[in-house]
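Assess this one:
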Amino acid sequence: MVSLLREVILTERAPRPIGPYSQAIKVGPFIFGSGQIPIDPNTGAMVKGDIRVQTRRVMENIRAILESVGYSMDDIVFVTVFLRNLGDFNAFNEEYSKYFRSAPPARTTVEVSNLPKGALLEVNFIAYRQHSTYQGR
């Protein structure tokens, strides 16, 4: 029987969790990323701006979490997107697509009535690297 270690991922390059959860958890070659909202990790404040500005911040936070353990955006295999307004779908997609130039991950997008701190979106993810060689921090 294979034992997979469970590692908490925490990087200062992404916002600290605002509740009792981890930025992400690594189990074997998988990373399960908690929902990211558009918080600037340097200030701890929500970024001001429209869906495009907030989408860029969220995606940069996700990139920072992945890079902190040697993964990249190309390793993301599944994403869930929560939008406060599905009318933002096209503008969101334009920004989001800049982070996945080829072979974008599978994705679900839903409209929700509200999000923490009044964010316009929240994004969580699952990443997988077949031959992960990362061995701790």
Q: What stands out?
A: The beta strands are 6-9, 24-27, 30-36, 76-83, 106-111, 121-128. Residues 51-67 form the longest helix (17 residues). The chain has a mean pLDDT of 94.
